[in-house]
Specification:
- Helices cover 62% and strands 0% of the residues.
- The protein has one domain.
- 38% of the residues are buried.
- The longest helix has 22 residues.
- It is built from nine helices and no strands.
- The protein is mainly alpha-helical and 222 residues long.
C-alpha cells in the first residue's frame, strides 16, 4: 500500500547535482552525522527546486508533467519540493535499506523535523532530502493552511505505513489511512493548482481523492 510510485533514481542521471549528494539520497542520509559534508549544503531556492524537479521526474513522469503543466510558475518549485520530499521519505521507509529500528528512528527524525519547520525553526545540519522540506516550509507558502494540512497528513501516512508493515490491517484502519491520504492530496491540489479556490470544506471535498485511492488499490490487486 505505497503512497507513491518508486523513485528509481540513478546517480548518473542526476546531472546538476553533485555525486556525493546524489549518493546520499539513494543510500539514506537520515543519519546526518554519516552524510558527506557536501550533502549538508543548504539547498536554498533555486537549487533545492532543481533537485526536487529531478527527483520528481525520475520517480513519476505523470506527477512531473502535472506540475509542469498545471502549477503556476511561481509555485512550481515548491510543488516539486512537496512531492519530492515525501517521495524520498517513502522510498526509504518502504525499501530494504533500513532495518526495523533504523526505519523507526528515521520516521521519528522526520516527524521532529516537520514540527520544527512548521514552527519556523528548521535546524541547519540537514541532509539534502531534508532541505526540500525546510525550503518548502520557509518559503512563500509557509503560512498556507492547505500546505500545513498536506504536510501533517502525509507524514501521518508515512507513520501508518511503518506501523502496519508486514501485518494485515483492519477496516477502520484502512478508512483512516484513505482519509489521511485523500486529505493530503486534495489540499496539495488546492494549494498548488486550485489557487486556493473556495471549495466547500465538507466531507465531499475529499471524495474524488478517496475514489482515486480505491481505484489504485483495486489495480494493485490484479
Amino acid at each position: 500500500m505505497k503512497a507513491h510510485t518508486g523513485m528509481g533514481l540513478s546517480i548518473r542521471s542526476m546531472s546538476g547535482v553533485d555525486r556525493e549528494t546524489a549518493r546520499s539520497l539513494q543510500c539514506g542520509d537520515f543519519a546526518r552525522r554519516d552524510v558527506p559534508m557536501k550533502a549538508l549544503t543548504m539547498y536554498s531556492d533555486p537549487a533545492s527546486a532543481t533537485l526536487a524537479e529531478m527527483i520528481t521526474k525520475n520517480s513519476s513522469m505523470q506527477s512531473y508533467i502535472t506540475i509542469q503543466t498545471l502549477v503556476p510558475r511561481p509555485l512550481r518549485g515548491d510543488a516539486f519540493r512537496a512531492y519530492a520530499y515525501f517521495r524520498w521519505v517513502d522510498d526509504l521507509l518502504d525499501g530494504n535499506t533500513l532495518d526495523a529500528e533504523q526505519r523507526f528512528d528515521f520516521l521519528v527524525s522526520q516527524q521532529e523535523l516537520l514540527s520544527r519547520c512548521l514552527q519556523g525553526q528548521p535546524p541547519r545540519d540537514l541532509s539534502s532530502g531534508e532541505w526540500l522540506l525546510a525550503d518548502l516550509t520557509q518559503g512563500p507558502l509557509k503560512a498556507d493552511p492547505g500546505l500545513r494540512i498536506y504536510l501533517q497528513d502525509m507524514m501521518a501516512v508515512m507513520a501508518f505505513d511503518v506501523e502496519r508493515r508486514h501485518r494485515r490491517i483492519h477496516r477502520q484502519e484502512l478508512i483512516r489511512y484513505s482519509r489521511l491520504l485523500a486529505t493530503a492530496v486534495t489540499e496539495a491540489v488546492y494549494t498548488f493548482i486550485g489557487d486556493r479556490c473556495g471549495a466547500p470544506k465538507t466531507v465531499a471535498r475529499y471524495l474524488a481523492a478517496d475514489a482515486a485511492h480505491i481505484i489504485h488499490m483495486l489495480r494493485d490487486l490484479r
